[in-house]
Design a protein that fits this description.
Jelly Rolls; seven-stranded antiparallel sheet; nine-stranded antiparallel sheet; single chain; 18 strands
C-alpha cells in the first residue's frame, strides 16, 4: 500500500512519542563540520556537488558513474554521523552506503562498519542493513536487515556509527537500532585498526533490491543522495606507525558522550524497533552458524520469530523460503525479498 509523506511522518511521530522522545536528543550538541574541514572526494568527481557554503554535498549516480567521498583522516575509534536524505521515486538497484573501512590500507585484513540502504520501489518501505567485519573476516558476515519506519527520501534524518574499544552502536536519529558489545571471544573479528569514513552511491542491480529482481532504471537518473551536518569525533592517526598514537583521551571523550550510552527509554525503543522492523539477523541464522557467534545475545522471544535461516516467520509457514507480507499493529509493513545471497 502506497504511503504519503504525512503517513510516514505520523508513523515516525507515534514511534518516537511512545517513548517520550523528540528527534535526535542524543545529538543536539554535535559539532558540524564543513566538507573542506573533514572530507575529500573519493570518485566520480563530476557527480559530487558541494554546496556554496561547503556544509553539504550531493552524491549523484547516472548511467556513467556513481560518486563518493572519504574522510580526510583515519580514526582509531570514533563517532561518525551525518544527516542524510536518500534518492526519491524509483531507486531499485541503487545502494547508498555510509560506512567506515580501512580496506585501502589493509587489503587482506580490513575492518569495516556498514550502513547500507538497499534501493527502493516507490511506495514500498525502505530497507537497509548494518554489518561489521574485523581483520578481514568477510566469511563471517554479521548482517542485520531492517525496514525504516519513515520515508528517508522526504527529509533529512541522522545516521550515526559509534565505535569504541568496548562497543559499537548504530543509530537512526535518536533510536539505537543495534548494539554490539565486544566479547573477548570475538578476538580479531572485532574491528580494531584505524578506519576512514566513506559515503558512496552506486549501482548494485545484481543483488540490492529483491535479490536483483528489480534493476536500476536510468530514466529516473540522476539518483541523488544528500549529506549535511557532518560530525566526526575520534583519534586521528596515521594507519601504520612505529610508535602508536596514544588515543586514551579520545576514547574517554567518546565514552563520556550521550551517544555512547543507551538510556532506558532508548533501550525500549531499540527493542521495539527490532521487534517490528528487523527481518533478518545472523544471530538466529543456524544454517550459517550452527552455534551463534560469541557477541550474539539470544533473546528467546525474539528467536521464536525467526526461522533457522535468520529470517522472519510468516504465520508459521515457509512460503518457499521467501518472505510474505507481514503486518504489525499500527505500523504496516510490506515486504518482498531484497537480500543478496548470504
Amino acid at each position: 500500500m502506497k504511503k504519503s509523506s504525512s503517513s510516514y511522518n505520523l508513523i515516525f511521530f507515534i514511534f518516537l512519542m511512545s517513548f517520550g522522545f523528540k528527534t535526535s536528543l542524543a545529538f543536539t550538541n554535535l559539532n558540524s563540520l564543513s566538507f573542506e574541514e573533514s572530507l575529500s572526494p573519493l570518485f566520480g568527481d563530476s557527480n559530487l556537488v558541494r554546496s556554496p557554503d561547503d556544509l553539504s554535498v550531493r552524491l549523484l549516480l547516472d548511467k556513467y558513474t556513481g560518486s563518493g567521498f572519504i574522510s580526510s583522516n583515519m580514526y582509531q575509534h570514533g563517532f561518525y554521523s551525518s544527516m542524510i536524505k536518500l534518492p526519491a521515486d524509483y531507486t531499485a538497484g541503487v545502494v547508498v552506503a555510509f560506512y567506515t573501512s580501512n580496506g585501502d590500507v589493509f587489503e587482506k585484513t580490513h575492518d569495516e562498519l556498514d550502513i547500507e540502504f538497499l534501493g527502493n520501489i516507490k511506495g514500498k518501505p525502505w530497507r537497509f542493513q548494518t554489518n561489521l567485519y574485523g581483520n578481514g573476516s568477510t566469511h563471517r558476515g554479521r548482517e542485520e536487515r531492517y525496514r525504516l519506519w519513515f520515508d528517508p527520501s522526504k527529509e533529512f534524518h541522522r545516521y550515526s556509527i559509534l565505535w569504541t574499544p568496548h562497543k559499537i552502536i548504530f543509530w537512526v536519529d535518536d533510536v539505537p537500532i543495534r548494539e554490539v558489545i565486544r566479547s573477548d571471544a570475538m578476538g580479531a573479528d572485532y574491528p580494531a585498526k584505524p578506519m576512514s569514513l566513506y559515503a558512496t552511491i552506486w549501482d548494485a542491480s545484481d543483488w540490492a533490491t529483491s535479490g536483483g529482481k528489480y534493476k536500476a532504471n536510468y530514466k529516473f537518473a540522476p539518483f541523488t543522495a544528500e549529506f549535511k551536518s557532518f560530525s566526526l569525533d575520534g583519534c586521528a592517526v596515521e594507519p601504520i606507525q612505529e610508535v602508536p598514537t596514544d588515543c586514551s583521551d579520545s576514547v574517554e571523550f567518546l565514552e563520556s558522550q550521550d551517544y555512547s550510552s543507551i538510556n532506558s527509554r532508548q533501550r525500549a525503543a531499540m527493542r521495539r524497533f527490532r521487534q517490528r522492523f528487523m527481518y533478518y539477523s545472523y544471530c538466529y541464522d543456524t544454517v550459517r552458524y550452527p552455534s551463534p557467534l560469541p557477541e550474539c545475545v539470544i533473546v528467546p522471544a525474539e528467536k521464536d520469530r525467526f526461522k533457522e535461516t535468520g529470517r522472519l516467520k510468516f504465520g508459521g509457514t515457509e512460503a518457499r523460503g521467501r518472505r510474505k507480507n507481514r503486518r504489525q499493529p499500527k505500523l504496516e509493513i510490506e515486504s518482498d525479498p531484497d537480500e543478496r545471497k548470504l
